[in-house]
Structures are given as C-alpha cells and as structure tokens.
C-alpha cells in the first residue's frame, strides 16, 4: 500500500492563492459588462460616423438606427456631419456633458 504524498504549503501562499482566486472571480463577473458597454459604444459611433454600404442601403429602404446613450457633443457632430441621414437616426438617453466637468453628466430621457 502506497502512502499518500503530503505537500506542505506555507500559510502565506494559501492566502495569496485565495486572494488571486477572488480577484479572478471578480474579473470574470465585473469585466464583461464593462467590455460589452465599451463595445456597444464603439459600434454606435462607428455606425454613426462610418456607416457600411449595407447600412446605407438599409437606410435607403427606410431603416432607422436608434443610438442609445451617446454624449451631446457626438449627437451635435453627427447632426452637422451626417445631415443627409438625419431621417434615419433616432437618439435616446443623450448624455449631457458639462464643459470641463465630465463627472456631472446627466442623461436626457424623454421616454421615447
């Protein structure tokens, strides 16, 4: 009969492993929503300022793109730069940023 091998792990290492596991778990839980939000914002900016040929064809057939949560500067810029596409755009929950004070953002929500 074989005797089991016992490995002695110093107490500090066990504590470190537990902390690393907690941080890993928090990263798995908290990071994906933040990444998804960032990806969604990038998608909206790209669709707004660099529309694909397919998107332009869909808009020509009457498709309306709903942009959610963009800041007011981006909306103003889009309305100026993409004027010919305005009838195919809808902006909801526009973030109103204060000049020089980005911590004081407010969201316009007209229940649209």
Q: What descriptors fit this protein?
A:
single chain; two-stranded antiparallel sheet; 4 strands; 112 residues; alpha+beta; two-stranded parallel sheet
Order of helices and strands: HHEHEEE
Helical amount among residues, as a percent range? 40-55%
Query: Largest beta sheet: what is the strand line-up?
Result: 1-2
Mean pLDDT over the full residue set: 79
Rg to the nearest angstrom? Answer: 24 Å
Proportion of β residues? 15-25%
Number of strands: 4
Overall body shape: elongated
Q: Which sheet architecture does the biggest sheet show?
A: 2 strands, parallel
Distance between the termini: 75 Å
Give me the number of helical elements: 3
Helix-and-strand structural type: alpha+beta
Would you identify the regions where 5 or more consecutive residues have pLDDT less than 50? Answer: none
Write the layout of secondary structure elements.
Blueprint: H1 11-49, H2 53-60, E1 65-68, H3 72-81, E2 89-92, E3 94-98, E4 101-108
Parallel strand pairs: 1-2
Antiparallel strand pairs: 3-4
Task: Characterise the protein shown here.
The protein has a two-stranded parallel ribbon. Strands 3-4 form a two-stranded antiparallel ribbon. The longest helix is centred in the first third of the chain and has 39 residues, at 11-49. With 112 residues, it is of the alpha+beta class. The model has no long low-confidence stretch (mean pLDDT 79). It has a domain at 37-108. It is built from 3 helices and 4 strands, in the order H-H-E-H-E-E-E. Strand 1, helix 3 and strand 2 form a beta-alpha-beta unit. It starts with 10 loop residues before the first helix and ends with a strand. It is elongated and about 80 Å long. It has helices at 11-49, 53-60, 72-81; strands at 65-68, 89-92, 94-98, 101-108.
